[in-house]
């Protein structure tokens, strides 16, 4: 029998040999060999290696191609297979005799690109241990951009795949790039070790002046980033000692990305949605760790451990750029604001212009810029001067310095559609995971016994644990551990509680103990509160975050007030500026602004309504007296917002301030204001806030459209809804919460893509537990996580369905969720597509199925459930008579899992819909499922797309369908069938979809 015939005959065995391990390595090696022999051309290779395609599909494609190329190629294919497969693994099929055709062809490639192909198998093994160094060589010789590097480095690739990708890119770049790689490998072989930056000699001329500048810049960046900035006023903490990984995720669902993102992925290629754009946005709430993350990136770059593809990194703070009044050119921006070159400025700037792919800019806090992003004013010339915001916007959109990568941070509310269209990708920073909280607390306390006590205390205070998910709150809680450990019943629950805790902590630590007798701590420090409060308040109104001595004087801020530690000296790169101050953190500024609104007798009556309903604003109120020289002479975007001009998403600081005002006016804190304001004034303010919240909620409900015929009434949350819920939570008054939802009569509450994390979950549960009728709560595509799941438990009795797709939930979260959910009679449906679930969660579902004979739907698609998990689920299904929908799309249950499920569902009278798409199910599984078709009286749809069922498996399904007229469809797209087989089977059974 010829090798060509054998390729057909042994197709299943070959597929099994190359794919059953789940690793693509064997297939890749076979492809390398065939490419090197010229049996496949690069175009063939690309047609096979289509990203996102399953290993089985790629292998099938190769088999078709090899077969089509004829007998010689088939012989070489078998030779490659024999070379690649470990002894014994090819035992399932026979190799044809490999004659002279199977030996390597004599080949003397004439060009470097062809050498690259001819030596591909050995180059892959040479390069796989030193891809980084090879990339470096390609970058400094100007052949690779950072985008190319990122493409090679994608974490989904194994080291050998990275080497292959590198070679593919090099081939596309042409001869000169190929030469660099071959020369690099030669040098490596010569030196016997991996080559690093020092001993690699770039062939191009050496830019000495740039190298010197790079050294100066990196030592300045290193000096600025090695300590955590907001500790300036309290203690110095080295970033290395305290930095804790936050959760990073892509804003857009990206099927290829599994597992959490690492710091390197912020700039890397992962999740790129617009390859033409240069700007990556890192978004996250205030206090979520955006500045700290950038600081970490800066430090690692300065040390040469990360972002090595960038020779120069220029860090900017939008907060500081606000105070730049002069028009600037790009050159002045870089050199004046970041690092001044001691010599050869022109040459260095020219180098920057000539090598954009070696340069990285970072802009921290775009939301703090006085001007909202706009792309109306275009600027293309790097030497032309313009106001700093115009410069910045043009850099971000790429009309200036195209090709330079930029990383920008901002709160999500401040990012509008105009900016979004210029983004390469958006990465969400979502605070600490439960283990992150633990890690942070342990790093924060040098005494492990104290750390353990703080953690034990946090575990008993659920709401507080939810708050600690936010790094800034975690810092406060750790910082105030004595107060925390001392409080029993009255432990902090709201964000306002936590900020009051730190206020008290700072006051008590900075003043003499004897002075605190007799009067309340707040009364004692009222002057400081009012001075700093006014400063904060005026600043929020005018988007001013850095204050000059004159600003401090205007608000009566004294040296004593500064000593309390809420203000820190502003870090400014320019030595010429006078000493300026800023609040420890923006959240702290909002808190002081709120304190001012609540405690000042002078505060205007209209402030509260302006704060909650800026669209109705009159001319008075917040921000009207723009008295600060350091920040602005014209009111900034907050001011515009207060004048009703800007969209509500552009006023995140006002929203935070309003949230604090709600908290400070809660009944629990009202005694604090007794000595500052007449109680009638405070009571009036409370009534005003309650009225605004109630009005705001009812406005949302009024916007709900009537239900479409045949569907239940559904509300899709509008911007601002979650914020109102948070304000209500801060008030901690169940009457307000009840009133808020009393008119909410919907069956389904949709809060997808609403930036909901644990803090928001706590507030949601607090309010939704008062709903009159259960709802379907749809929280897909947020960052609920395990901590958030725990926060939701109090409202579980009011949820008939819970949709938590794409929320980073693990088995532990599910354990807690189901332990409560099992006792909630209304709770009937759950959807958990794309979380972090493994087999360990299935025992809880099994228990649920056994205990609840009214549960309707479980969807666990795109998790990591294997045969073991399927067997656990099957245990539960055996004794369940209610489940109608079971979704396991994109797991790994294989044949054994499918057989176990099928035997449990054998004669199901409830299951209507079953999906086992993309689960590695073969003929054994199909055979068992055929029995379900035969016997079940309820099943209507069975999804088996993207599996490895062959003709005989599908035959079983066809036979079974003959005995079942109720079944509507069986989906078998992308299984292991030839075109002829598909045609034949389709003719015989119309309910099969291929
Ligand atoms: P944002 O820029 O998002 O407002 P910051 O980066 O200023 O937030 O973080 C606020 C505070 O939270 C920091 O000063 C620090 O105390 C703490 N923090 C934030 N992120 C981290 C982190 N990754 N590791 C340790 N502490 C952090």
TrEMBL record:
Keywords: ATP-binding, Cell membrane, Cytoplasm, Immunity, Innate immunity, Leucine-rich repeat, Lipoprotein, Membrane, Nucleotide-binding, Palmitate, Repeat, Ubl conjugation. Pfam families: CARD, LRR_6, NACHT, NLRC4_HD2, WHD_NOD2. It is a lipid-anchor. Residues 95-115 are annotated as: Disordered. SMART domains: LRR_RI. Residues 1-83, 108-187 form the CARD domain. GO terms for biological process: innate immune response; regulation of apoptotic process. It is found in: Basolateral cell membrane; Cell membrane; Cytoplasm. GO terms for cellular component: basolateral plasma membrane; cytoplasm. It comes from the Eukaryota. PROSITE patterns: CARD, NACHT. Residues 278-414 form the NACHT domain. One of its GO terms (molecular function) is ATP binding. Belongs to the NOD1-NOD2 family. This is Nucleotide-binding oligomerization domain containing 2. The lineage of its organism: Eukaryota, Metazoa, Chordata, Craniata, Vertebrata.
């Amino acid at each position: 029998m010829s090798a060509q015939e054998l390729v057909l005959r042994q197709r299943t065995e070959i597929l099994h040999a190359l794919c059953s391990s789940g690793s693509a390595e064997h297939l890749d090696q076979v492809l390398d060999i065939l490419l090197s022999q010229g049996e496949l051309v690069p175009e063939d290779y690309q047609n096979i290696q289509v990203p996102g395609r399953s290993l089985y599909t790629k292998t099938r494609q190769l088999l078709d191609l090899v077969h089509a190329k004829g007998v010689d190629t088939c012989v070489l294919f078998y030779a490659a297979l024999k070379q690649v497969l470990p002894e014994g693994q090819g035992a399932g099929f026979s190799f044809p005799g490999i004659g002279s055709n199977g030996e390597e062809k004599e080949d003397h490639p004439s060009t470097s690109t062809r050498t690259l192909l001819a030596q591909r198998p050995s180059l892959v093994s040479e390069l796989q241990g030193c891809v980084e160094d090879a990339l470096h060589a390609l970058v400094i010789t100007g052949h690779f951009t950072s985008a190319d590097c990122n493409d090679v480095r994608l974490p989904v690739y194994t080291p050998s795949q990275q080497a292959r990708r590198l070679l593919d890119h090099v081939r596309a770049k042409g001869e000169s790039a190929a030469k660099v790689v071959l020369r690099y490998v030669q040098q490596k072989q010569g030196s016997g070790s991996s080559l690093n930056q020092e001993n690699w000699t770039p062939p191009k001329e050496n830019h000495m002046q740039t190298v010197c500048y790079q050294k100066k810049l990196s030592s300045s960046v290193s000096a600025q980033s090695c300590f955590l900035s907001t500790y300036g006023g309290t203690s110095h903490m080295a970033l290395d000692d305290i930095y804790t990984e936050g959760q990073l995720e892509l804003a857009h669902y990206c099927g290829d990305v599994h597992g959490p993102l690492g710091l390197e992925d912020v700039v890397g290629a992962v999740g790129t949605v617009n390859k033409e754009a240069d700007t990556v946005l890192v978004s996250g709430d205030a206090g979520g760790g955006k500045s700290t993350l950038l600081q970490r990136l800066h430090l690692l770059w300065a040390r040469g451990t990360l972002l090595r593809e960038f020779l120069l990194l220029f860090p900017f703070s939008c907060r500081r750029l606000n105070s730049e009044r002069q028009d600037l050119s790009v050159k002045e921006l870089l050199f004046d604001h970041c690092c001044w070159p001691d010599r050869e400025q022109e040459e260095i700037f020219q180098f920057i212009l000539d090598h954009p792919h070696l340069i990285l800019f970072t802009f921290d806090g775009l939301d703090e810029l006085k001007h909202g992003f706009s792309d109306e004013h275009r600027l293309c010339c790097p030497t032309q001067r313009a106001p700093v915001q115009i410069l910045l916007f043009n850099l971000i959109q790429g009309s200036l310095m195209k090709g330079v990568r930029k990383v920008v941070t901002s709160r999500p509310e401040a990012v509008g559609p105009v900016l979004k269209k210029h983004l390469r990708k958006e990465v969400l920073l979502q605070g600490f995971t439960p283990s992150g909280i633990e890690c942070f607390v342990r790093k924060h306390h040098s005494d492990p016994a104290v750390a353990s006590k703080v953690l034990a205390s946090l575990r008993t205070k659920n709401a507080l644990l939810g708050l600690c998910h936010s790094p800034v709150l975690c810092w406060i809680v750790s910082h105030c551990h004595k107060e925390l450990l001392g409080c029993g019943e009255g432990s902090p629950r709201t964000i306002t509680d936590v900020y009051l805790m730190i206020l008290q902590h700072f006051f008590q630590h900075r003043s003499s103990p004897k002075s605190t007798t007799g009067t309340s701590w707040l009364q004692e420090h009222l002057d400081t509160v009012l001075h700093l409060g006014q400063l904060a308040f005026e600043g929020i109104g005018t988007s001013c975050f850095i204050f000059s001595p004159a600003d401090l004087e205007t608000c009566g801020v004294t040296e004593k007030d500064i000593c309390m530690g809420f203000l820190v000296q502003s870090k400014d790169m320019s030595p010429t500026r006078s000493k300026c101050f800023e609040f420890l953190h923006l959240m702290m500024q909002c808190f002081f602004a709120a304190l001012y609104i609540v405690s000042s007798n002078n505060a205007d009556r209209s402030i509260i309504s302006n704060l909650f309903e800026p669209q109705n604003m009159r001319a008075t109120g917040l921000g009207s007296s723009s008295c600060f020289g350091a920040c602005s002479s014209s009111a900034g975007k907050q001011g515009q917002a207060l004048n009703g001009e800007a969209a509500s998403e552009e006023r995140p600081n006002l929203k935070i301030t309003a949230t604090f005002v709600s908290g400070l006016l809660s009944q629990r804190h009202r005694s604090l204001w007794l000595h500052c304001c007449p109680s009638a004034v405070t009571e009036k303010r409370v009534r005003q806030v309650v009225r605004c919240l109630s009005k705001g909620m009812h406005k949302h409900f009024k916007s709900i459209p009537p239900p479409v015929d045949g569907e239940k009434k559904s509300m899709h949350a509008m911007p601002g809804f979650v914020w109102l819920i948070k304000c209500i939570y801060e008030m901690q008054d169940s009457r307000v919460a009840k009133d808020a939802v009393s008119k909410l009569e919907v069956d389904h509450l949709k809060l997808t893509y609403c930036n909901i994390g644990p803090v928001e979950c706590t507030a949601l549960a607090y309010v939704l537990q008062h709903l009159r009728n259960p709802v379907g709560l749809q929280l897909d595509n947020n960052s609920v996580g395990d901590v958030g799941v725990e926060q939701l438990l109090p409202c579980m009795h009011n949820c008939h369905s819970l949709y938590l797709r794409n929320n980073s939930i693990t088995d532990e979260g599910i354990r807690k969720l189901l332990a409560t959910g099992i006792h909630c009679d209304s709770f009937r449906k759950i959807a958990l597509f794309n979380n972090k679930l493994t087999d360990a969660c299935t025992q809880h579902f099994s228990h649920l199925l056994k205990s609840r004979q009214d549960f309707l739907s479980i969807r666990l698609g795109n998790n990591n459930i294997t045969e073991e998990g399927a067997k656990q689920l099957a245990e539960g299904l055996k004794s369940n008579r209610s489940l109608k929908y079971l979704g396991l799309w994109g797991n790994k249950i294989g044949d054994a899992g499918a057989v176990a499920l099928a035997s449990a569902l054998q004669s199901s009278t409830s299951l209507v819909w079953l999906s086992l798409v993309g689960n590695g199910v073969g003929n054994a599984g199909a055979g068992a499922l055929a029995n379900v078709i035969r016997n079940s009286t309820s099943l209507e749809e069975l999804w088996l797309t993207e599996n490895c069922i062959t003709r005989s498996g599908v035959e079983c399904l066809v036979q079974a369908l003959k005995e079942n007229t109720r079944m509507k469809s069986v989906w078998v797209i992308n299984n292991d069938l030839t075109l002829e087989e598909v045609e034949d089977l389709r003719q015989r059974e119309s309910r099969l979809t291929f």
